[in-house]
Amino acid sequence: GVEFSTLGPLFRNVNLSAGALLGASLLESETPQEIGGTFTSTDRNTDRSGRAGLTWTPNSLINFNIQGALRRGVLNRPSTIFGIGSAGDTTVAETVSTDAGNVNTSLRFNSPWGGTFSATARASDTQIIYDVETSRNNINRSKNMQLQAQDKILGAEVSWNFQNGVSESDFTQRQDGYVQSQWNRNMELRTNRRLNRRTTTNLRGAISLNSRRFKDFRPSSPSSFPPADQDLFRTSGAAGIDYRPWTKFTTGLEGQVDLNRSINLTSTTSINNTDQTGYRVIWTWTANPLPIWTVTQNNSAGANQIAYPFAPDRDQLSFIYGL
Questions:
Q1: Greatest CA span in the chain, whole angstroms?
Q2: Are 280 and 291 a contacting pair, CB within 8 Å?
Q3: What is the pTM of this model?
């Protein structure tokens, strides 16, 4: 293999790095069979990979980075089962090809007033193909993006996070195979503020949507049915307060509410749609009577409700208490 990187900035605060690897291996194995005979395998593997990266830091406020990698590999695995008596030997040749690549990029900005903002993105493509055992094929493509920000607003520490990703997986070579597409979107907001030297408040909220779609279904029999398209919606919120009257004792109270909504989009499966709502109140306290002795207690009370919009007779309600 060969590795390369610049020890310092190449030009205008730009750093470069690169590397390449070429490898080959041979593995021979022989294993007795329970039914008699011997299983012999000779694996020949070749692997080529390369990577490159660039970092640019024009000043103390901005940092930009981009990296990419490629990998190509081939595994040849002829296998032989030696027969017993008049039974002849059987040889099965398997070839596994691997093609993978990814690109990652990030940008970070530090404001002169103490806030930060960052953006990252990633794209990847992986294909593992079997010539004989095609049901083991793994083909996946994905793209992801993330935005983050953090700052102090009106005396409160505020952080915000947003993620968006798409992926596609090809399972068409499997029994009852299909192509699955998935979208994930998630946003989260957190804030905490110190009211005085003894009291701190915090708030947090999150919302997400996961969508799954299926296409190119290949039934193995007339009774086979494709998976149902589905959306999963989640949202949650919490508010809490922490109080520390003296150094050896701390107590806190928090309330939480969350909703999980499962939506099956086909008419044949929508009867299983559910809305799950949870409510919870948590009171905790911690005491340190001695340097080697800590006492903690968690007390909680909550309720969970499961509603079936198209089958209300299946609705459920439960209460949970904990000490």
A1: 89
A2: no
A3: 0.80
